[in-house]
Structures are given as structure tokens and as C-alpha cells.
Amino acid sequence: MNSQWQPGRLNSDLDGAGFDTLAVRAGQTRGPEGEHGEALFLTSSYVFRSAAEAAACFAGEQPGNVYSRYMNPTVRTFEERIAAMEGAEQAVATASGMAAILATVMSLCSAGDHILVSRSVFGATVSLFDKYFKRFGVEVDYVGLSDIDRWRAACKPNTRLFFVESPSNPLAELVDIRALARVAQEQGALLAVDNCFCTPALQKPLALGADIVIHSATKYIDGQGRCLGGVVAGRHEHMQEVVGFLRTAGPSLSPFNAWVFLKGLETLRLRMAAHCASALELAGWLEQQPEVEKVYYAGLPSHPQHALACSQQSAFGAVVSFEVRGGREAAWRFIDATRVVSITANLGDAKTTITHPASTTHGRLPAETREAAGIRDGLIRLAVGLEDVEDLRADLQRGLEAVRG
Ligand SMILES: *Cc1c(COP(=O)(O)O)cnc(C)c1O
């Protein structure tokens, strides 16, 4: 008899299941109604059969739901599914990607610790480290992403955490995660990878030796630009600390958002395959256009880290950046001539987005810092969505024509 229709946990039969099966089924429990889709538990608290049971649940002596700041069945299903897809012992969901980074550092670092962060991480991540963590006595230094020797040289006896994004945004620089994990281990530090751009469909940092993987679920995990959320995954010993912080501080994921993300995970690999195929096609085409000086996309054989990308990712993601000749004026003309793609800085959406990093996401940086980071005035970032690639190419063609003038 198929055990599927019985109330209870359904994932006990999924040992050894493939990625797509986990994405569709892991973590689900079935209630007495026999519902097929995952149930959405919009409830902040839970009832008990007796005062004694309440006491035992509060004390953690008996399993049972207490309060949705730190346990909710829909959120738990999302956490278990992500853990299965990332190959993690445990995952903890948070209110946003930034809350995932906050929870990781607050729960695993202390005053006096030193953290190494890769240069060119997400803008709000830099603010979080520089404006807030430093205030509480945490030392933070930045290291160029790809140079492993620099990471080793930047370590101090109190280095506790390495934090990286690979590939980087917007210039698609990579770090050899296996090699960096070895350096972190030699130093007794933890390696955390923000895997937002690849998702577990393209890259599994824990299998490459990282200790912690972080996501903004707002991006590809949702995939349709609806909800904010985040998740941290790794070993039980670390995730218990993250749960403790969430329980106390409260940046918890809404069950409604968890439910939307569960639906997103079911199609994650298919969507990523379509995003990546269109991105690769457009990157190759852009590289051949005379108005384009340079394309930054690790899927192109001309990318200096193409071989590394092939060794640690199964595809190259959907963010394609390129420089047009003529600086900022040309880049703005290009962007303004498009009619299909959306002028917005978000990414990970079915809708393709186009951004001018130098005047938006990186606009507050001093010009020299921006130049040093490689964010030049002619740079345009495209986050390729799921529209017909021919329509996107035609739209970019309008941009190229505007650059020609
Ligand atoms: C968007 C993003 C974040 C922040 O996530 P939110 O869900 O917006 O808080 C963190 N890291 C990367 C790489 C991102 O793209």
C-alpha cells in the first residue's frame, strides 16, 4: 500500500532520492484531511491537551509546537526541503536574506572575533558588516575573492569566519571553494558561502567543503519576485545556535512566504536550466557585438575562470554583465532604448531585469573605489529571466542601436 495517504511525515522514504524528487517532496507532512499540496499553517501559536503538556513542550522535554517565532510546520517543511537539496544536516529559515546573514554572524561570532569577507559582496552585506557588526567589537577585513594566498595572508589568530559570494555580482568572479575551505580549516575558521546566485540547483557549497550556506530566498528560490525570505544551512551544532538566535531575536520567516518558496523549489531546477540557457546564449551573442567591449559571464570560454566554473558549478547562472563603448552616456542610452526588460536592480525573477550598477547598486561608492572594484561607467547588468530568448535578443539589439546613435 502506498503510505502517501496516511497522515504524518512523508519524507522517510526519500533516502537516496534524486535532486528533483527532493525538490518536489522532501519535508512534507500530511494532515488528517489527506491534502495533496503542502498545508499552510497561518498560526502564531499552538494549543496543548493539558497544562502538563504545555509545561513539557515549553521545557523542550516533549516534542510539540509552541510558538511560530521559532517553529511552524510550513516553515519546517521549507527548512527540511532546503536542507535535503543543499545536502545539509539542518536548515533554518529567516525573514530575508539579510536576516540569514545577521543570524549567522550573531549566533556564531563574538566581540573580539575577526571576519574575512570577499570584496564585491551584496551592498547591504557590506553595510551590515561595516556599520553594525564592527560597532559590537567584531573586526572585519575584505579580501579579493579569487586569490587564495591573500585569504591565507589576511588571517589572524582570531579569524572565526570567512564570508564569500561566488560567483560575484556583477562581475562574475569566482573563488575555488574547495581550496578556500582548506584554508579556512587550517585557520580554524568557518567558511560561509552566500549561494544566492547559483542556488543548490547549480552549486552545492557544503559538498565542496564549506561549513555554512546562506540564501536570499527572495531571488531564485521564489523565482517570481513575490516574497522576502532567507535560509541558513549547515551542521546541527551551528544551526542550533542559529535557531537560538532566531528564537530570541525574532527575524523569522512568515509561514505564508515559506509556502510560496516551497512551490518555487518544486520548479527550481527547471527554471534555473532555462535561465542559464538564455543567459549563455545572450552572453555569447553580446560578446560578438562591436558596441560591446567586454562580457562578464563564467559560461564563456573567454572567461578567465571558465574551467573553475565548470568544476564547481553545473551551469553558470543568469546574471550577465557587459560593458558598452561610450561610458555612462552610452550605457544609459542602451538601457532607455529597451522595451521588454525591466529597469530595476532586482534579480532572480521570471522577468528579465537591466541595471546600470555604477549609478544604482554601486552609486554611493566613491568613483575611485568603484573603478578599483571594476564597476566601470559603461557596465550594464542583465539578470536574464524566462521570456523567449529571441525577444530578449531583439530588445538588446534596440539597446545596441541606441549606443551606435
Ligand atoms: C538579495 C541578496 C541578499 C539579501 O537578500 P534579501 O532577501 O533582499 O534580504 C543577500 N545576498 C545576495 C547575494 C543577494 O543577491
Please tally the helical runs, counting DSSP H or I stretches of 4 or more residues: 15
Helix-strand pattern: EHEHHEHEHEHEHEHEEHHHEHEHEEHEH
Residues in helices, as a percent range: 25-40%
Overall pLDDT level: 95
Output the structural class. Answer: alpha/beta
* CATH-defined superfamily of the largest domain: Type I PLP-dependent aspartate aminotransferase-like (Major domain)
Radius of gyration: 22 Å
Percentage beta strand? 15-25%
Structure, explained:
This protein is an alpha/beta fold and 405 residues long. It has 2 domains: 7-266, Type I PLP-dependent aspartate aminotransferase-like (Major domain) (Aspartate Aminotransferase, domain 2, 3-Layer(aba) Sandwich), CATH 3.40.640.10; 269-404, Aspartate Aminotransferase, domain 1 (Alpha-Beta Complex). 39% of the residues lie in helices and 15% in strands. The strands form 3 sheets. It has a 7-stranded mixed beta sheet, with helices on both faces. Helix 7 links the parallel strand 6 and strand 7 (190-194). Helix 1 packs antiparallel against helix 3, helix 4 (97-108) packs across helix 9 (236-249) and helix 13 (327-337) packs across helix 15. The protein is globular and about 75 Å long. The mean pLDDT is 95. Pyridoxal-5'-phosphate binds next to helix 4 and helix 5. Pyridoxal-5'-phosphate is lined by residues 96-98, 122, 124-125, 165, 194, 196, 216, 218-219, 228, 230.
SSE blueprint and pairings:
Layout: E1 8-9, H1 19-25, E2 29-30, H2 51-58, H3 73-86, E3 90-94, H4 97-108, E4 114-118, H5 123-132, E5 139-143, H6 148-154, E6 159-165, H7 177-187, E7 190-194, H8 199-202, E8 212-216, E9 230-234, H9 236-249, H10 255-266, H11 268-287, E10 292-296, H12 306-312, E11 319-324, H13 327-337, E12 342-343, E13 353-355, H14 367-372, E14 379-383, H15 389-404
Parallel strand pairs: 4-5, 4-6, 6-7, 7-8, 12-13
Antiparallel strand pairs: 1-2, 3-9, 8-9, 10-11, 11-14, 13-14
Helix pairs in contact: 1-3, 1-10, 3-10, 4-9, 13-15
Pyridoxal-5'-phosphate (PLP) binds next to α4 and α5.
